[in-house]
Specification:
five-stranded antiparallel sheet, 2 domains, seven-stranded mixed sheet, alpha/beta, Phosphorylase Kinase, domain 1, globular, Rossmann fold
Length: 224
């Protein structure tokens, strides 16, 4: 029998992420299940899920060069604004020895999120308001990485509040400039946000403009 050749290689600096050179993949932690109709590549006994950067800002951030930003197999992730679980499911694939605590306030999105979590042992759905980390602190054990994708005017304040509430070491803020100020140049908003994060003693490691995949968005990679 001919040996199965794996066309994928691990992406250096991003544990748990694989690439063909053009497309990103994660190993499916819920074998036999798709989350958003993503293509599946089967290699031997493993399923690799294609990670669509047009549907996932985290996927776009990685495709645009983000490396070594604190997410690995053992991470315990607090995911704020998990919606229906598209990106959170890829995070679940990565943190095979960790957890993804998924906070979502929309009832409609939460119903879809719960269905995804039911197929994954390391995804925990929490229906609550990310403005109030005290409400769900008792359900989130040892979160060390905060990932936020919430398009609200006070999105920076929400991120800062949760970073400090859980004493997280790493974080990624997906910022939508138009939700902060629709009339201001996005680049000026991004600069203002970087300064604001630094005034809270959060070390901004890198800012990545996501415009080619997600208009008027930027990813802020921070450390405490």
């Amino acid at each position: 029998m001919a040996e199965v050749v794996n066309p994928l290689r691990p992406l250096e600096g991003c544990p748990g992420v694989y690439t063909t050179g053009r497309t990103l993949f994660t190993v499916n932690a819920a074998k036999g299940h798709q989350v958003y109709g993503e293509p599946i590549m089967v290699v031997g006994e493993q399923e690799f899920r294609a990670w669509d950067p047009m549907r996932s800002k985290l996927g776009a951030m990685i495709l645009l060069g983000a490396r070594n930003f604190g997410l690995d197999q053992s991470s315990k992730v607090l995911y704020l604004g998990a919606a229906s679980g598209t990106t959170a499911s890829h995070v679940s694939d990565i943190v095979t020895n960790g957890f993804v605590f998924c906070v979502e306030i929309s009832q409609r999105s939460f119903r879809d999120l719960v269905k995804v979590c039911e197929t994954r042992k390391n995804m925990i759905p929490i229906m609550d308001d990310a403005n109030k980390p005290e409400n769900y602190a008792h359900m989130v054990e040892g979160a060390e990485f905060v990932y936020q994708d919430i398009a609200q005017r006070n999105q920076v304040d929400i991120f800062v509040r949760n970073m400090f509430a859980f004493e997280a070491e790493h974080g990624v803020l997906m910022l939508k400039s138009r939700s902060v100020d629709v009339n201001k140049d996005p680049k000026k908003i991004f600069a203002d946000v970087e300064r604001k994060l630094e005034t809270h003693n959060l070390d901004v490691k890198k800012v990545i403009d996501l415009d080619q995949f997600s208009k008027d968005h930027a990813a802020f990679i921070v450390g405490a």
